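job 3f2a | input accepted
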Amino acid sequence: MKKTVYKYFFYEFLRYFIVALIALSAIVWAIQAINFLDLVTEDGHAFTIYFTYSLLTLSKIYTKLIPFCFLISIVLTILKFEKDNELLILWTAGLNKIHMVNLIFRISLIIMLLQLVFANIVNPTLLNLSRSILKNSELQFVPSLLKQKTFNDTIESLTIFVDTKNENGIYKNIFILDEGNILSSISNASSTIFAKSGYVSSDEKSLVLLNGNIQKLNVDGNINIVKFDKTILNLEGITTKSISEPKIQETSTLEILSCIKYQSLGSGKCERYAENYTETKIEINKRLGMPFFIPLISLVCCFILMSRKDKKITAYKKYIYFFIGFVILMSGEITVRYSGISWNHTLIYYLIPIVMLPLFYVALIRTIKHENLT
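job 3f2a | predicted structure (374 res):
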């Protein structure tokens, strides 16, 4: 009978967990995807790049929401069993509450493992892939570079300014400063381009300039001025200066741990971590420490299984223990931000769930024994 009950409980929990995770992730992703629209409107990336990048960031959302979804799912599963009097039937049939506590704890270990896999393997890998997609993508929409009365420096070492744009799509008073030889078809040195007017080609990959001049700075320091009636700037293949260097969240756990272990933060690929060593430790503690709070909140939720003589407390116990579990999760998020200050802070952060786990478990056992005696 136990195996049947355990499977039934686990399937009910899994149903709630998957629904909660997908629903909450969809909401967060939709809000986040709106912010990512700047990749198209500001940086000129293609919509395919935008959607791919947005989808790959879902792993980060899952990693954040797994502990909270576990809390919701465990509470809802217990309340469902309680509402349908299934718990009463189990207790009457002789199933000890400690067996149900152990089941919930084992489920929490599975979710903890899932969280560890996402935080340390899946999330950094997919985020790094999303960064690579941005790094290797090319400028797709030239109009996104041409904003009225705005100095646009989306492209590294290239600044573009336009005064106005009329109804026919003609830009007036165009200024372009090319400090990095981006427009090699025009010049092999730093150059400044002025044009009275211009427009974007039909394929949106070139900029046609009319009635202007090009000021080229030669190696010897002299400036040559070339006037033109019409010239075409081909911007196809030019990449924007979206952040292409992987952030700490996009770096593998093994790479970061290796840099910390061998204290080589000031050399080679570890150099970028030396700039903010505290943030590096905080990121590692998030990945390795936060999952251990999941078994802790599972034991907190198990107190809902306990009966209460005071009916007022019984009516509100689901809210009380849900709130306690939520506070524990928030405490974990807050304390991890201070865990990188020193190794003592890191030790305290890891000791919180490790010390509290046996205390909560002993409290549950004592409560169950007291109920049996009464």
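job 3f2a | The chain is about 55% helix and 15% strand.
job 3f2a | closed
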